[in-house]
Structure formats: C-alpha cells, structure tokens
Fold:
Amino acid sequence: MVLNLLPLAGELTGFGLAIGFSPLHIVLVLLLLIGADPLRRGGWFVAAWLATSALVLVVMLSLGHGLLLTMEKGSNHRTGLDLLGAGALLAVGLRELLSAGEESGAPAWSQRLDRFCTLPLISLIGLSTVVQVVSPDDLFLYAKASGTLLASGLGRGSEWLLAGLFTFSTSLLLLLPLLALWLLGRERVVPALQRAKTWLLHNADPLVGVVSLSLAAYLGWQGIEGLRLG
Structure:
C-alpha cells in the first residue's frame, strides 16, 4: 500500500515545493531570522504559512467532495484545470523571465521588504496570508493538488495523510532556515542567511520563471493527455 502511494506522494510534494518557492516569502523569513527576536517572529511566520496552506487545501477538498467533482484523467474538470493552470503558469514564467532581462540587480518588490519587517508581527502575518491566498498561480497549484487527491480514490485516512505531506512540503523551504538557526545558533547561521538573501534577491525572477515554465509544461502535457482520453 505504501509503495502504491509513493508516485502520488512525489507528485504532491512537487506541487507543494513549487508553492513554497516564493522568493518574497523566503526573503521575508530570512530578514526575520536576521533581525530581532528571530525564533519567535520567524516561527510564527512559518506557522501561519503552514496553517494557511492547510486551510486552503481543506476548503478545496471539502468543496470537491461536496460537489462530487470527477477528477479522473480525461474528465472535463481535471482537463480544464490542467489547461487553465498551464496557461496561467506560462504567463507567469514568461513575465518573470522578461522582467529579469529588463531589470538589473534586485527586483522592485525587494525595496519594500525591510519596511514590511518592521510591522507588528500580526500585521506582517496578515499581509503574508493575503498574498499567499490571492496568488493565481499558487491557487491553481492548490486546486491541482486537491484534484489529484480527489482522483486517487483513497480512503479518508490515506487522503488526509497525503494532504498533510503536501501541506508540510509547501512550508519546507521556509522551515529549513528556521531549523538551521535553532539547531546551529545565530552566530554560525546569520552570515549564510545574509548571503542567501542577497543571492535570492538577484536571481528571484529567473528562478521563478524557470519553475513556472516547467510546471506549465507538465500541466499542459497532463491537459493534452486528458483531451485525448476524453
């Protein structure tokens, strides 16, 4: 049974990591960990991200079960979702790669991050949550993950286990620097966090572009397969 779940677990983990690969949120975590009271502020920030991911997935799974949506490969719902997601991610990927060619240095949004980090923690978490749930490409990936779970025909126990794995994977890239700081200590980790922040700011747009185009190609292939089966 466990071996049968491995391909599905790998696919869901890939979707989760793609959602978690948000340069804005990763840089925010790095700034929180470099600043004052890093473990408390960074910990609450990551916990809020994790809770938001769990809530979004629960809502989508509940709606899918309630509406009895068919998500087998070739069904109208799944094929339409794959093609819409591919189109949205293609647009995001091209936009990011084109903007990377036009800009030199850090992206424009990076100039506002230091100001965001000075906000009270509850306000910062609120803004982060809004950005997380209104991002169209992320919403497509949440919908794709829930559709994949709905199509699997698993029992509720296995479904929620995989849902938990997906939710955890969305926070993994934010959790790793927090764990490094906690385990290794501030003096040893902060210089590496500073370098990671600088590198990510200067490479954010092309990285997001490549990841988005890769996902667009995958979802496009899934959608074309669905059209053939339908």
Summary: DSSP finds nine helices and no strands in the chain. The chain has a mean pLDDT of 83.
